[in-house]
Design goal:
By secondary structure, the protein is an alpha+beta fold. Helices cover about 55% and strands about 5% of the residues. Strand 4 and strand 5 (about 360) form a beta hairpin. It starts with a helix and ends in a 16-residue tail after the last strand.
């Protein structure tokens, strides 16, 4: 038998590429930049959101944390200048302040607006690449994995988060990696590194937003316990326990910080009534609706699938679903079983507490004995006499699982469901790619259609950040440090008033998060709308210097009713007027009133004449 030495031939060994995933990474980067080119060209001046969206809360947090880390050297997890005079322990809010601390060098280098936009775009790139990485491990096909990554990256549930839901974007970015590492930990013979990596990535996902303690973990458990593997049950459960212990150890410092912050902000509770969150699930028919943000659909889709809140933006995409069905039908069950288990759990829990259809709660006539029997589960719901909703598993979880009553938007379980659909689409694409030229063309066409269905250009909302940079902010910045203000009308200006604090750096009573802090909730009725004589004792006790009021320039009610009522109260001195206001509800002017420290005290000389 001839050998290489006998023939004198030099053996040809295929060298392993040093960066085997560099081209797909470049592809996802370029695709995200192309699909968001208006934002890319205006990174420092615009955001793809409305002037009153959560975007401005995140920009405020980025700016505040960066100043605490690099300027004042103060605690970045507390600010005395929002929710004044109590202050805000930021870990009690929805946004992951610890990530903003880690990203504070970026904020310091490029500013909070650029940092916000770069972070947002990066989550799409990294999330799409994560699905590509996982799909390639599952299918072995690079082009199929790229299609799967696109299906996840352009899904409306993902792209709609550009309007300030950075916490959800972080979670969706980490989720594919956590799933991939966990599945490898369950199947590899030597899985030590995968167990450790799975624990780290699950922790990173949960730390993005505490919702993911349930939204990531419950579907992921379904996948881990149903994946086909030669690893015995005892070893599998031991690995899963160790993975969970690593994740728990990593999230514990932030968990304790959050617990302390919530105790400070919400000593009386901090949970949602079932009636408040019942409708924050997804109507299942919306999964098969068109992308409501698509430029060709947004003008008419609302007539059939009206968008009332974020729970109604859940379209999975027709091309992605078609490929996912192909993948489910053509791929051996042992390969798709963990994805199906994960997807079913996510689907059922994404529907919320009660079934909806066409966006409305489904009610059925029920006999009195049945109404009494389920009374313990429906006691917090507002129901018409003689009727019951179709209860879903979330009701049981709400009443039995610790901390589950802190979950407000069950629709966010659509994140792992979107991931499952993308991975199954990868299996479908891999099957088509193996069917000759026709299959390859069909797979490529469906991949292109997936991207087309996910289009959001022109953005539904695209605004200059300067839209909220009011002239009054400059006036407030010139006042003595420690000046305290409250802005009206509440609650419409809470988010933007908080954003303005990053510009003028004075203290504001206003603030925004999922729960109203207890100190504010107890006097919310007194503070109310303006004018309100009952607010005066509270404002004086809190040491408020100025009341800022946004109004309409041609508002006859303000001129004929509100203004005389303000003057009649006798406790406010009109000292300034500015010809701009928050870009919301048609506001055009901003008025500044000084609060007399006591009745009858003289008004200061107005620095700005009242028109």
């Amino acid at each position: 038998m001839n050998t290489v030495a006998d023939t004198g031939l030099t053996p040809v060994v295929r060298a392993r590429r040093r960066f085997p995933h560099s081209l797909p990474a470049l592809f996802f980067t370029l695709l995200v930049l192309a699909l968001n080119y208006p934002l890319v060209l205006n990174l420092g001046s615009h955001v793809a959101s409305n002037p009153y969206d959560d975007t401005f809360e995140v920009i405020w947090q980025l700016a505040t944390v960066e100043r605490a880390v690099f300027e004042s050297g103060t605690n970045p997890f507390f600010t005395p200048d929002v929710f004044f005079p109590h202050g805000w322990y930021l870990a009690s809010g929805a946004q992951p302040t610890w990530y903003y601390v880690l990203l504070s060098p970026l904020t310091a280098a490029v500013g909070p607006v650029v940092a916000y936009n770069v972070i947002t775009l990066a989550t799409f790139i990294i999330g799409g690449f994560g699905v590509y990485w996982l799909a390639r491990r599952l299918t072995g096909s690079l082009p199929a994995a790229v299609i799967a990554g696109c299906a996840y990256m352009v899904a409306p549930f993902f792209t709609s988060r550009v309007g300030g839901h950075t916490h959800v974007l972080f979670g969706m970015m980490f989720l594919p990696y956590a799933v991939g590492a966990t599945l490898a930990a369950m199947t590899e013979a030597r899985a030590g590194r995968w167990v450790a990596l799975g624990g780290v990535l699950l922790a990173a996902t949960i730390l993005s937003h505490w919702y993911f303690l349930f939204i990531a973990t419950l579907p992921l458990l379904g996948a881990a316990l149903t994946v086909a593997t030669t690893v015995g049950w005892r070893r599998r459960l031991a690995r899963l326990a160790l993975l969970g212990a690593i994740a728990l150890a990593l999230i514990t410092p932030a968990l304790l910080l959050t617990w302390q912050a919530r105790q400070a902000m919400f000593p009386g509770g901090g949970t949602f009534r079932l009636s408040d969150v019942e409708q924050h699930g997804i109507s299942p028919d919306y999964f098969l609706g068109p992308n409501p943000m698509h430029p060709w659909a947004r003008g008419w889709v609302g007539r059939t699938f009206p968008v009332r809140n974020e729970a109604d933006i859940a379209a999975l995409g027709y091309a992605a679903v078609a490929l996912a069905i192909v993948g489910l039908v053509t791929t051996p069950w042992r390969q798709t079983r963990p994805l199906v288990a994960m997807g079913l759990i996510a689907f059922v829990l994404s529907l919320g507490a009660t079934l909806r259809w066409r966006g409305e709660r489904v009610l059925v006539a029920a006999p009195p004995w049945l109404i009494r029997a389920v009374g313990p589960l429906t006691r917090d719901l507002n129901l018409p006499a003689g009727q019951l909703p179709i209860l879903l598993p979330n009701v049981l979880l709400y009443y039995t699982v610790p901390f589950y009553s802190s979950v407000r938007v069950w629709a966010r379980y659509a994140a792992p469901l979107t991931l499952v659909v993308a991975l199954l689409a990868g299996f479908g694409a891999a099957w088509l790619l193996g069917k000759g030229r026709g299959g390859k063309l069909l797979a490529a066409g469906l991949g292109a259609l997936i991207v087309f269905e996910g289009l959001t250009l022109p953005y539904p909302a695209f605004n200059a950040v300067a839209v909220n940079d009011r002239a009054v902010n400059g006036w407030l910045a010139a006042q003595p440090a420690g000046t305290a203000i409250i802005e009206y009308p509440r609650p419409w200006v809470e988010t933007t008033a908080m954003y303005s604090q990053a510009l003028h750096r004075q203290s504001v009573v206003n603030g925004y998060m999922s729960f109203m802090p207890d100190h504010l909730a107890t006097v919310d009725a007194q503070l109310g709308e303006w004018p309100n004589r009952d607010a005066l004792p509270v404002l004086r006790e809190w040491g408020i210097d100025y009341v800022i009021v946004s109004r309409l320039n041609d508002d006859a009610h303000f001129r004929e009713t509100t203004w005389p009522a303000i003057i009649d109260i006798g406790a406010l001195c009109p000292i300034g007027a500015f010809p701009d206001a928050f870009n919301y509800r048609g506001f055009t002017d901003t008025y500044v009133f000084a609060l007399r420290p006591e009745p009858g005290a003289p008004c200061p000389t107005p620095p700005v004449p009242i028109p």
